[in-house]
What we know:
The chain is mainly alpha-helical. Helix content is 70%, strand content 4%.
Amino acid sequence: SATRRGVLLSVAALGVIAAGVAAVAVGVGGVRTAFCVPGGELPGGVEVARSCSYVADGPGAVVAVLFCALTLGVLALSASVLRGGASVAAGGASADSAGASADGGERALPAGEYCFLLLCSLTGGVVLGYSRDLITLLVALETLTLPLYVLVGLRRVVTSSVTGAINFFVVSVISTTVTLMGAALLYALTGAVHLDRLAGALTERGELRDLPLAAAATVLVLVGLAFKVAAVPFHAWAPGTYDGAPLPVAAYLSTASKLGGVIALLYVVVGALRPWLDVVGPALAALAVLTMTVGNLVALRQSRLVRLLAWSSVAQAGYILAPLGAFALLAGRADEAVGIAVTATLAYTVFYVLIELGAFGAVVGMRGAADGGSIEELRGAAYRTPWLAAAFALALTGLAGLPPGLAGLFAKIAVVRALLEGSAGWLAVIVALNAVVGLAYYVRVGALLYRPGAHEAGPPPRVPLPVTLAVLGATAAALVVGFAPQLVIDAAEAAAGF
Length: 498
């Protein structure tokens, strides 16, 4: 019943808020540790200090609060797909929860299972921020990802949903296997799984650089984590999975799931592989260039809205990885220089997830329980739902890095500044060129909202109150950080302290 679904959503939201409050309390308190091992001697005669697998500190708290905020927003957006009754799509077609839709039919999703799986995924995200060894980190990352296989496939009557869930599952299993293989090889070489001990072993044992096994271990770990952020050429699962998933789940995939991949990549690269930044940097630079270029070029040809947003998300992953590409040049400089690159990546990620949540929220408001549909169905949407269209247009300008989407503009400025600080001007030029390419499809979709056409007719959709609050909250947050970007940059600097 509608009452039961409302109670489930409310209880789940209260649980997420409680987790966020607890994370804030941890962040303002002292550092707390668990699952620690005493210092000793690693193979090769490397002396190490006491290390802990779980460290509850300020940086971890920032990550936990971000995951809680994103999950709360996705829970609010889920009111459309969990409630019964008809919802009107942007094109004017009715998409009843028990009736047929454009791609094979929709039905209300089971609220209990949906909320449980989403909260399980949140648990993985929160633990990920506090993880300080490879085992805990990979378990947390899989806890974040595993429930999403089921959430993507909950639209059981839709073929694309099942296909997307299977593709996502197969690719994720392969990526996890690859990452575990790399982690096992690193352990075999160094005798350590804690991030700080791995860094110490790699620093003290210079002979490891000449071992092909060490290079293979590093590549395997990077490749496995690159799948999680949908970096090219490990991105093929993303468009079909996003398009087949319920819209709120696609929003979670493009925000919280990507945030988890970025955090895991940063922890491993900066925490464990830091002595080899001059080796890791060129690989990350190549991934960044491929990802942003392929993502933007393929997005130009998309006709379905969610697929366009998926390819846009791939391109944004390239911008996120770009500052890390300067590691090869920063490795011999002070720690502050490396901190600039990490801060830029974290700041861009925060700006991006806020804007992306607002974009998907506006689409959920316009489409209701239906899927994203074709881009053409947005024609004239501003005449039917002016405030939702305005929120979507603002999000698109933010993703493009144009005013009035100041949050996206400052995000790109942070990335370019980090690249220039790292003497990677050539990569800054590629970022700028890709940003220009991205304008083509962002502006095309934004202009279509205000172009008169047949789709402007019909009554406006009934937008549930939680969806309205989520869209307004995400849009307001994007506006606030756009006018006060230092709030995000300061938080990113705090989180970079790991």
